[in-house]
What we know:
Layout: H1 37-43, E1 48-53, E2 66-68, E3 72-80, E4 87-97, E5 107-112, E6 116-117, H2 119-123, E7 128-129, E8 137-143, E9 154-165, E10 177-179, E11 183-185, E12 215-228, E13 232-233, E14 236-237, H3 238-260
Parallel strand pairs: 2-12
Antiparallel strand pairs: 1-3, 3-8, 4-5, 4-9, 5-6, 7-8, 9-12, 10-11, 13-14
Amino acid sequence: MSTPITRVEGAVVGVQCHYQRLQNVSSDALRPTWVPYASMEVGEEVLVFSLKLMMDDWSSQRPSSIYFLGGIINIEASVKQYNHVPLRVFVDSCVATQGPDVNSLPRYSFIENHGCFVDAKATASSSRFMPRSQVDKVQIQLEAFVFQESSSPSIYITCVVKATIASAPSDAQHKSCSFANGWFAADGNDQVCGCCDSTCGPDGGIAASPYGGVQWEGKATLGPVAVQGQKKVKGFDLHQWQTTTLLRIKKTIQSEAGDLK
């Protein structure tokens, strides 16, 4: 019976396979050493957002929370990343209230519309975002104020802070825009601030970043911050009274030192 194959005597052929195995030298089954980023977005640890009062040179945290009316409050918003991928931080909105309840009245929204610092436009103040120096921090300068017809000097500040992957560029919903006769971005991309006088978002006239869907968001609160006005003593401004008194003491000491010679 003929067949389409030819049979020969049996033979043994040795075959060896060589391949690299990462982080595994046993004969156990291999497991993937990577996790797709899409699944990490939900599974990563919770991020910690914070607000801090900073010194004038931004080198350290300010030990006092007492300011004078019209002074500059330096606020730093940041995220603690732990082992997370590098992140870029944005301050989405900020509200000032007299108590810790963000929904209490009176309340003043000074950053809104996804990162538009509206205080300078509304009150002609010097409030602004500082030029960005680190991707995981946002530095804010807020001109100190008090609520009208209020006897309390305290204010609380609550901000919504966002984080995106560090490589994501700024866009209409992720930006830091200040007003000074026009809108300017802290990172130099002024185009993203064009919607600050209208509505910033998917329908705001500027296309959102392709990375816009990958973000984390949280609230951070600061307070109480005490803002004091210029008090008067016996008809004189307190600062003027203190300065005059110190000068008199200094002159008295110098005069007595001269008499001793």
